[in-house]
Amino acid sequence: MQKELADAVLQAELEPIAEENLNRHLATTKDWYPHDYIPWDSGRNFGAAGGVDWELEQSQLSDVARAAMITNLLTEDNLPSYHREAAGSFSQDGPWGAWVNRWTAEENRHGIAIRDYLVVTRGVDLAALEQARMEHVTNGFTSTDEERAMHSSEFLMSVAYVTFQELATRVSHRNTGKVCDDPIADRLLQRIAADENLHMIFYRNMCEAALELSPDQALDAVGAVVENFRMPGQGMPDFRRNGVLMAKHGIYDLRQHLEEVVMPNLRKWRIFERNDFSAVGEARREQLAAFLEDLHHKVAKFEEQRDRLLAREAAKRERQAS
């Protein structure tokens, strides 16, 4: 069995890699401005300013697009909690602190841009959105006691989690842009998805370095995250309803989670090709493989159920139209 390293040791050993990847990120990312992505000439006053308050018919978004936009925005709105979690899991000094602050500033820009778009285009009920934001941000987001108990290293769990979460967020934003049926929204969400991809690369590279430094320990963190993954938006108002709509219409479903989020990272890290695990690590890898096999079966079952449901809904619409 390989010796487990304390979080302070892991962070110190990986600090040069963090600095290298921070510099790579700053050299790669491109500045952009939310106001350049908003159709400002579509805006008008609401009731309190002498205009007209929101009504459903004012929205050009479908029910699915509205649900996805609200879910994505409320997820971004909970940034104070994510910053607290990241600052607590990493260090607030040196390259770790510089990365957390830079990441926070970039993520904040996403919420600003999406909200500006929805306000100007009257895409959603803004009063209900604000009520949901207040509730969600007040409740916050934090790791549960069960999640913290899954692994000895809070640091490695955090690095593994955000790698998968950033990629999941990229997929969700990109597919939301496609269903909005608006080239302006699509362009905006493509821009946000590009940021999320760069964030994912930073964390993925850190996780790869952790696997080189402490293979068994990092693998256990990866396995714990994959086997117990939850999106950061869980707990927001209407999350289950909106999540079901998004899954049913291909914005973020179980197959996308498996094939576009989980497996690309595992392949990048060569989880099933590595030969540097101890016997304990080998057993943990077998456990992860069994979980993934079961997840493949769940994907097939979910799609069968979804196809039957969509077929029934289509048949119902045809009967109503005839």
Which secondary structure elements does this structure contain, and how are they paired or packed?
Layout: H1 7-28, H2 63-77, H3 79-89, H4 94-121, H5 126-139, H6 145-149, H7 154-179, H8 183-213, H9 215-227, H10 239-248, H11 254-268, H12 279-321
Helix pairs in contact: 1-4, 1-8, 2-4, 2-7, 2-10, 3-4, 4-8, 7-8, 7-9, 7-11, 8-9, 9-12
Overall geometry comes to globular
Calculate Rg over CA atoms: 21 Å
Proportion of residues in extended strands: under 5%
Q: So how many helices?
A: 12
Mean pLDDT: 93
Contiguous runs where pLDDT drops below 50 for at least 5 residues: none
Terminal residue distance: 69 Å
Largest sheet data: none
Helix content: over 70%
How many E-type strands?
0
Structural class designation: mainly alpha
Order of helices and strands: HHHHHHHHHHHH
Oligomeric category: single chain
